[in-house]
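Possible regression after last week's pipeline update?

I re-ran a chain I had predicted before the update to compare outputs. Posting the input and the new output here so someone can diff against the archived version. Not blocking, just want to make sure nothing changed silently.
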Amino acid sequence: MAGNVKLSPLDLEILSELDALAFGFVRLSLEESPGSRKKQVALKAVAFMERLVVERQARLNQQRHADSNNNGSRNPLIDPLTYCKLGHLHLLLGDYTKALSAYQKYATLTPNQYWRNTVYLYGQGLVFFHFNAFRWATKVFQQVLYLEPGFPRVNEIHIRLGIMAKVNNDFGTSLRHFQMAQINTAPCTFNEAEINFHIAHLHEVYGKYAKANLLYRDLLKDPDLSSPLRADVHRQLGWIFYSVDAMGEKMGRIQTAIQHLQKSIEIDAKSGQSLYLLGRCHAAMGKVHEAFIAYRNSVDKSESNADTWCSIGVLYQQQNQPMDALQAYICAVQLEKFHVAAWTNLGILYESVNQLQDSLTCYCNAVSKLKNPSPNLHQRIKYLKTQLSNAPPPSHSMKSKQLPSVEEAWNLPVSNEMAGRQSNAMKGAKVSAPQNGPSDPNKRFKSESNPGNNAPPALTPQQLQTLHHLQSQASLVPPQQQLLQTLQSQLHNYRQYQVKVQQQRVVENAVSSLDSGELVNADILAELQNKDLGSVSDRELEALISQQDIGSFAESLLKQIQADGVEHHDMEVDGERDGDDEDSGRSTRASHQTENGVMESKDSIMECSTDNRDDSGFKLEDGGVNAQVTSLDIPTHLEVVRSTKSLCVDTSMTSDEILLVCKKWFESNTELSLTLSMTDKGPPEPPERPQKSLSKENLLPPTPSVYLENRKDASSAQLQEFCIKHPITVVRGIASALKLDLGLFSTKQLVETHGSQKVDVITQLKQNADENWDFNLTKQVWHCIVTKSNTTISKYAQYQTATFQDSLKEEQEKGGSGGFRGDLDLDGREETRRRRKQQSFLQFGMNVDLSEQRHWRTQLTELMKLPPWARVVSAGNMLTHIGYPIPGMNTVQLQMKVPCSRTFARQESNNFCAIDINIGPGDCEWFAVPYEYWGAVRTLCEKHGVNFSHGSWWPNMKDLMEEEVPVYRFLQRPGDMVWVNSGCLYWVQAVGWCNNIKWNVGPLTNTQYNLALERYEWNKLLGMKSRVPMVHLSWSLARNVRLNDEALYKSMKNTLVQSLKRTILILEYLKSAGIELKHHSRKRHDPAHYCAQCEREVFAILFVREIESQHIVSCFDCARSRSPDLKGLVCLEEVRLSDLKAVHDGFRFQVTPGPTPAYGHHAALAANAAAALVSPTSSSAAQHHVAAETLFAGALTNHQMLGLSAYQSAAAAAAAAAVAVSGVSSGSTDPRASFSAPTGTLLRSLPLCLPACSSLPISSQGRAPCLGEVMEDSATPEIGPIEAMRQDKRKFQEGKLDVSLSSSELLSCCKDLGHDDGDINTRLYDAPPVNPPKSKATSLSREELLPPTPSVYVRSKEEAYSPQLLEFCLQKPIVLIRNLASICDIDLQLYSTKRLVQSHPSHPVEIRSQMEQTADENWDPTMSKQVWYCTSSRSHTTIAKYAEYQASNLEETWDTMERTVNPKFDFSDKPTRRMIKFGTNCDLSDEKKWAPQLNDLWKLPAWLRVVSAGNMLSHVGHQILGMNTVQLYMKVPCARTPGHQENNNFCAVNINIGPGDSEWFGVANEYWSEVEQFCHKNGLSYLHGSWWPNISELTEAGIPCYRFLQKPGDVVFVNSGCVHWVQATGWCNNIAWNVGPLTHRQYAMAMERYEWNKSQKYQSIVAMTFLSWNLARNLRVSDSRLFLSIRAVLMQSIRLIVQQLSFAETKGIKIRFHGRKRNEPVHYCGLCDEEVYNVLFVKENEKRHTVHCLRCARTQDSDLKGFVCLEEYHLQDLLDTYDNFQLATSGELISSSVAS
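New output (post-update):
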């Protein structure tokens, strides 16, 4: 550079476009020199900037020297982007070493910002790729894809990632990257055919030869296929047909292979690889001459191929030319030092001539670098060592050797026939492997020492033989030991000298490529290694720039990038070798050179750049170094990043502000990227391991453990806090403390429950926990050998049993005593290992999904006993809020194990916590590493060649200890629970036979959320799918919860902001592009969407295309890569922007007054827990209701008191819970629902608010009402409940009792009333009167007398779960709901006769024998007149026997009538009728027997279920057969259910199973008195009798009657008090039960019938007093009328109890406290059948005690002599319940507790 450097504006424009993005498109190294303008511009810029570096570095040095105050400061005068631009230009010029140096300098100067420059990262990745540093290239390319998914060269990145994954044998990853490159439409240096070739070759490498063959042949069909690529395809097809037996018969395959190889040679005559393979084919056919010619031609092509020389050696060996074979093998191993086949064949050759020592040396070299050497080689080595140890020492008289030793052969000249060929090969070897091939063809590996050097003497053959003999001896005498030391020292010195000489030769013959040499220009490198580029002197810089052949400079620099060094992949990676004695050459390397110069092989990448490199370098002109820079025409600040102005949004902004900022930003920028929570720091990295050194004791720390003794300990907040603080915790005794029935999860119970459940089986090697052997049991490794298959629980149970019996038998044969636990004695001894070879594999049953409620309801219910923070579903569990099941995470999974079954090392998905309970009977051994060390473990995984993220591996304890990684190790015994904290790495091995259950939980803590989000981002970086969609989850949490943890709030808010920003930008892009956006609302329980290409989560905006009738979802970046204008894609908006903005703005930090515990934020969790129910939390309705019960109950069961605002939040959330449980979306304008739960396990502790008539209107403020708000009349001012009651007093008894009285006031009033000498009124409900109601006097028309039946046809689940359906049913006397069973996926076949017989054929069935007749008639037994009385008799049978009757009846009918399930009978000509049998009252209450049937009913809407919190009958506390349990009816045509009202006027649900129909008749409750009068008129008891109404008589009396057909799958809802009767039209089964909606009407009608039954001396099956007290204990009611009615009953009950106790005291009767057992049924008087509550009178001397009411006891003795009075509840307990039962209003402060 002799003067000023000036560039024109055009030159500056050219220079601005030259960066890494131009790599492969702008080939500066191929431009004509010096005429190319681009190249000249680049060279000028490089010269200027390098000169600028020197000049400004000198200034900086002067400034430092002058200013002592700034001594040592780092204030560079050069813009770091200058180094980045230098790196780009050197990359384009093909100078990779300088490019790497400049890039690294840029990264050093911008340690916290360089990652923002994706173009720089791309350039650096290309450099790493060129140097085969695949680990670092992969890392950098992944960072580019992570930071900018829409990067302009994303297809180039995917291709290179695919190539590297192929080399690393990662088939799935490689194929995915190639496919993503295929769909990208951006410009690419690879054409489609070349990518398809890579895909085909990938299948070939992975062993999918048939698929590879098809893909290769598809390529040949392309007429535009380039000639080089066509030649490569033919070569690969030739190799497949030659080497793969599955391609057909051998000779036919080889002929086909020869044809393909000849076509390849015709196209590319210089293809030495094809010639070599052709020689292999000829050799296989016995054509030795043709084979040798092909090999010789291959060598003539100057291709240094060790395989060729090995195959030549095989030919010579077969022709009995051992010396020539020896020389050929030596050529092979010199070209490739660790060529296994060559060393093996050479060993065989030496062994054939009885040179055992040389043979042993060759075999040892063959296995020295193999990960999995052949066991035959090890056996041979062992045999030779034995032979040599027993052989006599060598003597001079022994016969001379037939072949030279290995050392001698290494330096022998080759024969004339081979010299020329081998010389050419060695010349070619300079390019690919110069470290093995010197230039002298006649003296291979012969050192050329300098004249001044004194070479140490080499050992003579006799000395070598003596040395080998001495080394093989076990013991030596002192003279022999001295001789051995002397020979070893001499040999060591000679080998060191050879290494030095070889290094000198490599330096002299080095070439520019990094792959072509070792350390060159060592002097310059030694000086520059410890210097920054900015501190290099002029002379050093000139020397550095002028040196183009310093390949090892880059290699050394790579090693300095990180402390652990950079992987430098060799040019070739060992592939599969043919190890037979006849032909032992390696498999072919499928080389392919593209038009852009890219060469790729089966096992390696020959050249990784996409341009034909020009190795000539650029040197400064003479005098250029000393020239002064006086012109700045070239800008010093070079914009090398094609970046845009960053878009800054923060968590303090509102959604409107974010929208405004995004719109302004988008006006000038169009590049969009999505990265959550990583905007201010670089791509995610594994954590740095703690720096502190650990002692030996700290490397094996004691495992944190807790022993629980009782339920209180298990439910304590301290237990949860303890678990959260430690990486892993074993909680011992929890199953015993909570009385968990572990037998429900035993193998026997699992088989009985659902033996056909699918089980994933992992076949593993059986071994001790401290070892992990390779397949050949030769060395310990990290990789685990596994194969996968499937089976069922039943079949695996058989295997589990068989292994146990075999082991037990083996122990007994050994004479083993008791105490056998199933742990195997597996040590490292040869005998044990030999036994394991015979039976070395086991099967581990895993991933048994227990999420299906209908099968596993009992098991899942049992887990509800766990504390809330440990449950599968809980308000404080993030995973509960996902809204759909993720198997094994928010559902339970079971593992079935035999001894030595292994759960391989892993971290939980998204770093969520995990819970594992050992069912037993055997133990499990656990190993765990804290989260902080997972980066160190990952490094060890890379070192041992296993994939940390999705590989199967078992850490070696010795390796972990050497790296100072602490490991927890402990035994998990049956009943122990292991808590795995966030991010903890663990692995488990079964000690004995056992089962385990596990699931994940996500505590609502900032640590858990951030670790989950970090792993989410890490998975995106690696291109892996995150099982937990964190964006979807974050928005769900924002909708459902209110947080008082500020750190967690800020983290979640940041995620929402980033997601909202991304959504806005995409919408702006679509708007600017004029693309139509269709709204596609999200359905309940829909899983989150993932991109089908990159597997990233797709939220809010979906891009969908249809492929083979399937809709494929893509993310924005993948959609644009496939179609830049998004044509052919449908853009769907799943969530409206307005909704996201509302959620974002509504998500605010919740300030809770008063102190909060250290963990859990209990004061706010009540609101969080109940609010979680706004959106569905599980895929199945049953799970959803389990969630509801758990969430709300868990939020109110701890010992923290709530403040007013917190409780009101919880109340509002509870109301929202009612909406969610009934299936109403949170956006509904009229949500009406009832809250329900699947089991009664938590009902006693479940506070519940339900508005009047189960409706839940929205308040005027647009929110759901709080728990205490009375919403019946919004115009009524809100007043306190006591005041309201005082305004509307109702007097009971003698006018002295009032529901507004407190318990003390009530008690005083009751005492004042006295007991009236025992004549005590037992009536509890005073209004209305107990007489039947009077019907309306209005006359009805004929049409009104036969009204249409109210019916609903359900078309979707939304309709099925809608509150409008419930409201409709409650307004009508009877409703027919069609298609409900189908919509709810009810499996009707579960209740079919066939299935019932299969399940429990001996189950009892009650039989009613009836007369066969039509529904319009009812004859007396003589057939003389029609009557109301039904003739029937009762008997009993079993399901199996009745099924036989049903089948015979069907067969008999079909023989005489039309074959239909609903036959039409004509009895007009039949004077007599036959008797038929009706199977009724078949009880299905046993959950163990009928689990599938009962679980299936959980699919119904909540208000129709057998058990739900909104069902009064669920609060009875014990089973009432046929009411709160399911009963089955088995029918034949004409089978009748006579007329009746349901017990206590409760509602009823009836489902027709089919296949026949049922005909129903119904009369509204208002007319039941008229029906009762008809019964009385006909001499029948309305309550006790069996009667069938006459329709004509009802019509004449003006009683309207509904009449309709119930078809299979139809549900009939019978409302309170409706009179109904049913007749089967065909053969069918029905199931039925009762429900009691929590409405005032239902409660009032039940109490009316309760009182009327007492007047009729008829037992009320539902004990309403007992039920009322349970409702008061369990619920909080906001329906004022329902509240007043219940409170009135409680008041009268207290009055009755006080009066009875008072009377007993006056009579001197002993009053004993009796108590009440759990699930104990209520008591009825043994004489009058009235309910007896709390005060029981029992005769003292009776053997079998009969309970009496006071009235009946007095009839036996007025003074109650002989009676004892028993008290079930303390009066004070009842009074407390009475006081606590208050109308829930917002004006009251209701104290409650909060769950952790």
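Follow-up from reviewer: compared with the archived run. The mean pLDDT is 76. Marking as no regression found.
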